[in-house]
Amino acid sequence: MIIRFAILPLFLALNLSMCKKQESVSPSSQQASASSPAPAAVSTPVAAASPKITKPVVDQTAQVIIFCYHRLVDKIRYPGTEITPAAFEAEMKELKDRGITVISMQDLLAWKRGEKNIPPRSAVVTFDDGWKSQYEVAWPIMKKYGYPFTMFIYTEGVRGGSLGGGEAITWEQLADMRDNGVDIEAHTATHQDLREGHTITLIAGGKRTRTKLTGPQYEQWMQNEVVGAKQLLEQRLGIKVNCFAVPFGNYNEHVKDIARKSGYEAMFTVYGQPITFTSPLDSIGRYAIEANKPKVFEDAVKMIGTSTGGAAAVAEVGAKDLSTHPADGETVRTALPLIKANLSAIGAIEPGSVQLRVSGLGVVPASYDPKSGTVSYQVTQKLHEKSCSVILSAKSQGKKVEAHWTFGIEEGAAAGGTSPIPTPKK
Ligand SMILES: [Zn+2]
Known about the structure:
It contains eight helices and 22 strands. It has helices spanning 2-14, 85-97, 105-112, 132-145, 171-179, 215-237, 253-261, 294-305, and strands at residues 53-57, 63-69, 71-72, 82-83, 101-102, 121-129, 150-153, 183-186, 199-204, 207-212, 243-245, 266-268, 287-288, 314-317, 331-332, 338-342, 355-358, 362-364, 367-369, 374-378, 387-396, 399-409. The relative contact order is 0.17.
């Protein structure tokens, strides 16, 4: 739950349709404002028992680099968007050699949502525009390495569309990719600069007109580029599209806004940078790999290549193993409870690594007694909700462990009922 706290604001901002997934989120993650900690360590050693790991929690220190490729051709004519198959394969091999794990786009998003763990150093491979060389040349190489990947398609550029020529991918090829687990996402309808007032080409009845759209005309055109492209891909291929790549990486706040409102979970640009757990999902940078700039790939790989290998993922320990007070599921009669847990079941705890979070308060100045293994915190500000969630984390043998539990507060207590514990003076 600690993770969901961190991503909740971002998550809400991006996609309200995902709300189902947040039912269990506690209402607040504010910082503690309690100024007078009232530690009351109690020495009641508990017999050591091996803790049960109940659920993996995601590694928030992992980093992801995302690559964006275009055409794969033997003879480079447009170095800005082309790469030779040999150079491409060498890069895919290098990822493997460097221990960088290629993960799918959907795994990246699941990690960002706090639902799935990913390796500490990961990469996502994407192909833009929908060229047949991506089907004929890139895909066999990706298969050889067992790498998942994502195709960003602009719908009018698919073969048969107003912009789809002989080098374009076909709907049949896309369906074949879909059937084999390739992720297919949106890259507009006609692949143009989406910012209002920029010169674009309108195609109607085979006629092309250069123009600049503003106001309602622009908004209408955008609907087709952003929503229409998504719907067409979803309908033609029977898929769910939740990612959007902006053409040329050109966007502004309004473009981001429309993408968000159109139901995209994430929007992608071409400003390469390592993606972290907290990177905003509405402008995720990708490294665009070009034949004449091999350094871009090298730099990207080095960006996460120098990391320490990432911290071990957090493991969750059952609250029962920690003899918590109040116990998980218990209802107390006070809005000012004493919160306690015993960490001795976990093993040696690294000094200073113990952290206690309380819903409605945030991190609280809890005291930890290494002798007894007891963590305690006397709540000094009344808890206002009917239930209170506690997240206790600590490091043991280099590994982060967490326990989550929730207790109830009897109605009336929160509103100022009698408390068995004297209210500390403020
Ligand atoms: Zn493109």
